[in-house]
Amino acid sequence: MINERQSYYGHRDVYRRRQYTILRNERLTAIAGAVLFVLLIVELVITANLHNLISVHIFVGVLLAGPLVVKMSSTGYRFMRYYAGSPAFVENGPPHWLLRLAAPFLVFLTVLVFISGFALAFSGPKHMGIFFKMHAASVALWIPVVAVHVYAHIRKVPQRVASDLKNHKDYHVPGRNGRVGVNIFALLVGLIAAIVMMPVSSAWNHWQIPGGLPSPLVAGIMLAVFALFIARPLLHQKRP
């Protein structure tokens, strides 16, 4: 009888630890995603008025890098643990097949957008070379992929963030202070980097940009509408 009871509590503890592993990762990802979502909306609004706000565009773009590292690290951790056969992540199951299909493109385009953006900030308008075309093309393709990704998670993220910030006993998951701290630290690192970059990218302040919406932004929004039109019914399909 004692052995049965010990076995029961042992299995329960294992199950609880596995659940905590999943929830910690989900909540860290959700907080980073929420921060990124707000900053990306700000960046898109700024980009729409790029001819007047080029310096702010660069500042926010650099600021984004900190939370982005957290987001990519947490999702990358889930990816590695799942394909390494971790019981907790295998039991939780993979993401939707469409998101798994889009993930390599999302990672590649995200890296391309930021590498080309940083290269442009350092090189200045007189020496932008191929980086300008690379940045414009990658942004136009990146926006629709991000739109699908955001749509797939937009309902879950607020609930997960709220549950973590409330820290109510019914929703408590160990490590909340660490998760919040990591995201605050990432924001601070991004902020410091953005401030340091200001004199480096100052040459862009004197670059004459035509008025109106930038063509990569227009193309990206149009592609995003089309991508969401295609992806929406697929994302609502039940898992087999």
Automatic annotation (TrEMBL):
The lineage of its organism: Bacteria, Bacillati, Bacillota, Bacilli, Bacillales. It comes from the Bacteria. This is Uncharacterized protein. The chain crosses the membrane at residues 28-46, 52-70, 101-124, 130-152, 184-204, 216-235. Keywords: Membrane, Transmembrane, Transmembrane helix.
